[in-house]
User: Fold FAD-binding domain-containing protein from Cladophialophora chaetospira.
Amino acid sequence: MVFEVAIIGAGLGGPALALELLSVPNVKCTIYEMRPEGFEQGQHISLAPNALRVTENIGIFKKLKGIGNSYEELHFRNAQGSPIATFHNGKESDYGYAAMRIHRRHVQQTLVEECLTKRIKIVTDMRLKTIHEQSGTSKVQLTFENGQTVFVDFVAGVDGLHSVARKYVAPGAEDVWAGMLGVTGYLQKSKLHSSINRITLPSHFIGQNGFIAIMPSDRSGNEIGFFSTMDFPEERSRAQWTELFNDKNAIREILRAIYTKDHGWCDLVDSIGRVVVLGDAAHAMIPTGGLGASLALEDAECLAKALKHASSTNFDSSALKQSLGTWEEHRRVRLALVQEFTNRNRRLRQPGGSWLTQTIKEWAVWLLFKFVGSGGMAEAIYQYDTKQFEKMLLPV
Ligand SMILES: Cc1cc2nc3c(=O)[nH]c(=O)nc-3n(C[C@H](O)[C@H](O)[C@H](O)COP(=O)(O)OP(=O)(O)OC[C@H]3O[C@@H](n4cnc5c(N)ncnc54)[C@H](O)[C@@H]3O)c2cc1C
Assistant:
């Protein structure tokens, strides 16, 4: 029997899941992506050791290493550039991998190319509209905006922040405004002020009234990515965000105003157990952990293991439900750990406020890293290997 899987979304988690599913007997999977072929999207992202471990397992790590900027140390500095602490964002000797800064499009394209090489079908211009499970049949019906309909045995919704699959799996789940804004961009190193030459990059600058990161983002180190995350209480509609995104002057003003002066959970599996959500569709993270992609890749690898486990029973409904239940439980615990780390980073990046509180903060950060070491309490995040999950799957 062939078990047909539809993966919604060819971002990061979707193609990773398809590659992982190659090792599951009798599974045939197709990726449906709403964007046209060759569409490029995103900005520079950091891939932590736990993300790179997954990319190694699916055979794309070496390609990424030839493109991205590998680094181990991330320097925390104050607004004047003075060092406060050093954090190991990755470390080959401890985690098996350094960290990597790379443009998201390179990661997404490499994943898609690997899928095409391995003959995984990707159908573009297919925007999922509705999901329908008929009672009395194990088939799920998917309808796309272009009017096409397909019937499959299982659906993995890896369709990002504005997920249609999530609306089906967890109809009551509400989007929660996290009260943060991220501004990001990049330029060539030669365009930076010469003062940058006395500062070791990558560095995160935690100032009295703001945070900014400056990070080499390609293999040569000439492409320099920068980003700033800030508390931004004012929620806006999607149209208003698009308007702001297109208004570069307004964005410059937001940054200038700072730098010139010196969660919610939803279900991951539907009630019948034939539709799941993962990646950003299930748990978009605030941008202070640099771990959203890691989580999408981990989710995908664990889901493939859960499906492989259920494949020994030909995907019998109760075996599938049991495996997926274990997957959901495991991922929730993992997500809570990552969210704690992400929230801690948010506090670290928040402006100190007055001169006094900023000084106290800089000393507190210095003392913390002196005490916990350069691992910065991220060891459990970066050491994570999905083999941990395999051991949790009970016989079906
Ligand atoms: C500015 C920025 C910086 C970031 N920095 C980092 C970082 O440093 N480190 C890190 O780990 N993470 C970072 N992230 C987060 C990371 O990019 C995401 O967590 C990751 O891309 C999630 O992968 P995903 O596959 O779940 O979703 P996505 O990558 O968003 O992919 C979803 C895919 O689904 C498609 N889709 C959506 N709706 C439909 C539909 N109805 N039908 C068909 N297809 C659909 C979309 O077109 C897209 O291709 C950052 C994000 C942003 C925005």
